[in-house]
């Protein structure tokens, strides 16, 4: 299995997709962190002022904006096999196809760790410098540290979910577009409609929000339950994807 | 392969196909477009699930092989990530199969791509892609080689090289080679045995020699002579099929040697005598004729219907 995982890393780092997503993530996280710090304490924005624990926890959770990119990383990692038809040589090398999916789950979860650390570093750097300039840099202790840890964990879990979705859908563009529509349209709608918002806490977005609990929002699960829920979604998608990958003909 | 069948919806791609491939020889797997060659090979390699029947290597299905790349090397299509270099593509599979990374460079050299190894595979020409795909199949130095139309896109020199390479593998190293093609002439000089399929069914299985012996006298011969009209009458006299146009005769169902003998006996001067389709090709058309699913109407027929 370790051979297959290393093979997946070779695949990942011999094209530039990872670099693009990493840089994109840095820009995204840095941008959101700066915006948030900039508008902190502004009456119209409704954001708590710099120096309060509420501000610090929201500001240090901005790395979670990159979840969408980690999702795409996982989706591309799986679907590129079908898109570029390398599924044929891959499954010729490893005829027991479930091993390929498991290797990808492991490879992308592990590879997502340093990527997530980079996101957190950018987040902390921007907030520390900018908020420091505006009066008080947050300390990296207690609740603040916990927010960072759960944010990083959420990023890693989203890469795992991406692999699972990719195995399930196989079509790269379809999987990415579907993922974006779900995250940015379907879930926000469900979250905001009172009739369905009760179900939101059981959905991936609800799990994510529970993990990185911010200062406002609907009824949510606890942080660890939210994390487990997310992992559960990732593994469920991967399990279904694996079952399908094993049965479906490779053409 | 035993009793292999597969259908896609209403299309019966392969039906009850059985044949064996012998070690130490090159076997040609022939059939017109859509005959089910690729489908058969995909089932053989565990990429498609047959509706019925089994395909095994020394008794073991592909999916149960412990070291698949060492046992079987296969080229089904030229598949790689366009942004990855040829060398890195090979390294991916070295890693997955547990081979040393140096194997990547060895097989690149073997197929003549050593200089292009660091270039993006997306920029390769068709022939280079075929070579990279072949290199992938050779990574494990396998005992069996399965190739689906490997000559596609190769230049004449490349085809020449491929022929020699496959013969060397089979005859000198005792490997088993199964190579598909829709052209008999393409593999005629390479293969020892042929398996011919048409519309998913086995049409003929046997050695090239057997096929040749059945082909005697079945060809079409082209003759150019200043005495064309006289010679045509002479040939027609005993029922030989002849058509004549501008002093060129097309004689069917015979060999150049036979036509030459007749002309010599009658003292007729010949300016050209050659076989237009070899008897082998005629046999192949005859065998696969009617099983062609996607036969296009001939240009003449199209003209007539206008
Ligand atoms: N994935 C698929 N879905 C539906 N039909 C298919 C599929 N693959 C093959 N077929 C059909 O099965 C038949 C056999 O196709 P196959 O590709 O095996 O032929 P082939 O002998 O390899 O032809 P060629 O010489 O053109 O490569 C054809 O009628 C084809 O249309
Ligand atoms: Mg084919």
Automatic annotation (TrEMBL), chain A:
UniProt keyword Transmembrane helix present: yes
Bilayer-crossing regions: 21-39, 59-78, 105-127, 147-169, 181-203, 223-246
Superkingdom, natural source: Bacteria
Entry annotated with the keyword Transmembrane helix: yes
Keywords: Membrane, Transmembrane, Transmembrane helix
Record-linked Pfam families: ABC2_membrane_4
The protein's name in its UniProt record: ABC-2 family transporter protein
Phylogenetic placement of the source organism: Bacteria, Bacillati, Actinomycetota, Actinomycetes, Geodermatophilales
From TrEMBL, chain B:
Keyword match Transport: yes
Positions of the ABC transporter domain: 1-224
TM segment ranges: none
Classification via Gene3D superfamilies: P-loop containing nucleotide triphosphate hydrolases
Molecular function as annotated in GO: ATP binding; ATP hydrolysis activity
Pfam families according to UniProt: ABC_tran (PF00005)
Superkingdom of origin: Bacteria
Coiled coil regions in record: none
InterPro entries cross-referenced by the UniProt entry: AAA+_ATPase (IPR003593), ABC_transporter-like_ATP-bd (IPR003439), ABC_transporter-like_CS (IPR017871), P-loop_NTPase (IPR027417)
Alphabetically ordered keywords of this record: ATP-binding, Nucleotide-binding, Transport
Family: Belongs to the ABC transporter superfamily.
Name assigned to this protein: ABC-2 type transport system ATP-binding protein
Organism: Blastococcus mobilis
Species classification: Bacteria, Bacillati, Actinomycetota, Actinomycetes, Geodermatophilales
């Amino acid at each position: 299995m370790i051979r297959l995982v290393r093979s997946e890393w070779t695949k990942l780092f011999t094209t530039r997709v990872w670099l693009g997503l990493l840089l994109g993530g840095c820009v995204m996280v840095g941008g959101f962190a700066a915006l948030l710090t900039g508008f902190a304490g502004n009456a119209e924005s409704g954001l708590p002022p710099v120096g309060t624990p509420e501000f610090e926890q929201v500001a240090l959770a901005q790395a979670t904006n990159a979840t969408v990119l980690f999702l795409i990383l996982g989706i591309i990692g799986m679907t590129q096999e079908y898109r570029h038809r390398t599924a044929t040589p891959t499954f010729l090398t490893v005829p027991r196809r479930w091993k390929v999916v498991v290797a990808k789950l492991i490879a992308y979860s592990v590879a997502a760790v340093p990527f997530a650390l980079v996101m957190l570093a950018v987040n902390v750097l921007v907030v520390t410098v900018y908020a420091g300039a505006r009066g008080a840099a947050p300390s990296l202790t207690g609740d603040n540290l916990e927010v960072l840890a759960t944010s990083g964990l959420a990023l890693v879990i989203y890469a795992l979910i991406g692999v699972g979705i990719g195995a399930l859908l196989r079509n790269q563009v379809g999987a990415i577009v579907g993922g974006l529509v779900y995250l940015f349209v379907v879930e926000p709608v469900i979250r905001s409609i009172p009739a369905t918002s009760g179900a939101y806490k059981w959905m991936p977005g609800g799990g994510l929000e529970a993990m990185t609990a911010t200062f406002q929002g609907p009824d949510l699960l606890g942080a660890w339950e939210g994390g487990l829920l997310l992992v559960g979604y990732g593994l469920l998608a991967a399990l279904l994807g694996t079952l399908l990958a094993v049965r479906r003909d490779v053409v | 392969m035993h009793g292999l069948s597969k259908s896609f919806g209403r299309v019966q791609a392969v039906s009850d196909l059985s044949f064996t491939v012998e070690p130490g020889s090159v076997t040609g797997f022939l059939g017109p477009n859509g005959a089910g060659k690729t489908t058969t090979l995909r089932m053989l390699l565990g990429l498609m699930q047959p509706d019925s029947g089994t395909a095994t290597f020394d008794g073991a299905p592909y999916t149960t092989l412990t070291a698949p790349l060492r046992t079987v090397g296969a080229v089904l299509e030229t598949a790689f990530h366009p942004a990855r270099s040829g060398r890195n593509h090979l390294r991916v599979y070295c890693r997955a199969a547990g081979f040393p990374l140096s194997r990547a460079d060895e097989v690149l050299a073997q197929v003549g791509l050593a200089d292009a190894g660091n270039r993006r595979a997306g920029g390769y020409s068709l022939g280079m892609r075929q070579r990279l795909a072949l290199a992938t199949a050779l990574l494990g130095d396998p005992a069996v080689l399965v190739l689906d139309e490997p000559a596609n896109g190769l230049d004449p020199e490349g085809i020449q090289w491929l022929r020699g390479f496959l013969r060397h593998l089979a005859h000198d190293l005792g490997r088993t080679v199964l190579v598909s093609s829709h052209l008999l002439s393409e593999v005629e000089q390479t293969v020892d045995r042929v398996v011919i399929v048409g519309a998913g069914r086995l049409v003929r299985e046997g050695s090239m020699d057997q096929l040749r012996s059945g082909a005697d006298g079945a060809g079409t011969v082209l003759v150019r002579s200043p005495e064309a009209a006289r010679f045509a009458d002479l040939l027609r006299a005993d029922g030989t099929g002849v058509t004549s146009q501008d002093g060129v005769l097309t004689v069917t169902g015979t060999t150049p040697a036979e036509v030459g003998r007749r002309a010599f006996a009658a003292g007729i001067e010949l300016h050209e005598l050659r076989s237009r389709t070899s008897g082998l090709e005629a046999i192949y058309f005859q065998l696969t004729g009617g099983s062609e699913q996607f036969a296009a109407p001939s240009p003449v027929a199209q003209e007539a219907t206008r």
